Amino acid sequence: MESMSTTGSAAYRALLLSLLSPGSGGEFPPVTCVVADGIMLFAIDIAEELGVPALAFRTASANSFSAYLAVPRLLELGETPLPVDDPVHGVPGMEGFLRRRDLPRLAPAADGHPTESAAAAGVHPLLLTMAKGIADCGRARALVLNTAASLEGSAVAHISPHMRDVFAIGPLHAMSSSVPGPAASLWREDDGCVAWLDGHADRSVVYVSLGSLTHIWHHEFTEFLLGLLATGYPFLWVLRPDMVGAAEEAALRGAVGDGSKVRVVEWAPQRDVLRHRAVGCFLTHSGWNSTMESILEGVPMVCWPFFADQHINSRFVHAVWRAGLDMKDVCDRSTVTSMVTEAMESSEIRQSVQALAQRVKRDVATGGSSDAEFKRLVGFIAELSATPRHQAQTPVITNGDGRHQE
């Protein structure tokens, strides 16, 4: 992050300058608006400095964004992220169910636990930096969130007063499903796993994927493997090449057998897997994309969050949306077995997540909230882009007496 804001910002400024004059961009017209990842605030600041209006786009959940905004209040109350069940009162709209273990945390240390200093302080300096970056998104002309009103309308409402404008236009993968494009991941997908699913009964397979960043340790791998085997259900497990070592690979080879009950792949076409009739539940790290993809397909989840927004996402899956079970801070074979079995067999969880799926599908359908917000965003960008550059870089601030000043 530090390197991007120094070395990266210089290259970005040069690129943007080269694209501002007619004809300088080759086949492209001059840049009239920038949409930047919200963690790259330098991209927003430089664009505005050059007279180009800029929007911030955040890929995490609105609920986690709201929690980061509340970090100063949480520190005042002493409600810092720790793996304990003490209730949290400092995040607006979440007072009734949020616990300290549900607050955004950084990745654990090598032994799987917080460092002694971090545990004592309850907060890491980088967490404070991230919280400040979240608040500073208010410098952009608007904040764009990949979410839907039926999922996070309350959080969006709490965020809005802190931003100049907010657009909730997701789930984006559902809104763009008819538009062909490249794969969403740089990992090579194993398409053969879909054919493997074809050979299994409806809702009989457990899909396991902990995302593109999570690393698991040997004891965690062992507990997951033995817990999954004890369920008796076949399972499809995504294990990236950088995720496990030689000992784990040997254990997997012994577990796979003839491949009829266990299929292990380095990466899977997740959307195709989740919509497959054979998949009965999703053991997930609760990344926001995975969470929305599972909800949209009506697949119950067992959540094992790792860091950042995943802890809040998993709490909402369990305690608010009733779309699955939250297994955070626990990794033993008996818990894996019991929670996966419950997610596979609970008609209540399945009905709840399928009802939620229908609400989200209405959001992205023509006339739905996300559809309307997307059209409003297009109009917003068109209006910004029509403003001359020398006007775009001059913010207008309203004084308390109603007068305006530049």
TrEMBL record:
GO molecular function terms listed in the Swiss-Prot or TrEMBL record: quercetin 3-O-glucosyltransferase activity; quercetin 7-O-glucosyltransferase activity
UniProt keyword terms in alphabetical order: Glycosyltransferase, Signal, Transferase
Documented EC number(s): 2.4.1.-
Gene3D superfamilies: Glycogen Phosphorylase B
PANTHER family for the chain: GLUCOSYL/GLUCURONOSYL TRANSFERASES, GLYCOSYLTRANSFERASE
Signal peptide: 1-26
This protein's record includes keyword Transport: no
Protein's name according to its UniProt entry: Glycosyltransferase
Highest taxon of the lineage: Eukaryota
InterPro entries: UDP_glucos_trans, UDP_glycos_trans_CS
Glycosyltransferase found in the keyword field: yes
Family affiliation: Belongs to the UDP-glycosyltransferase family.
Top EC class for this record: transferase
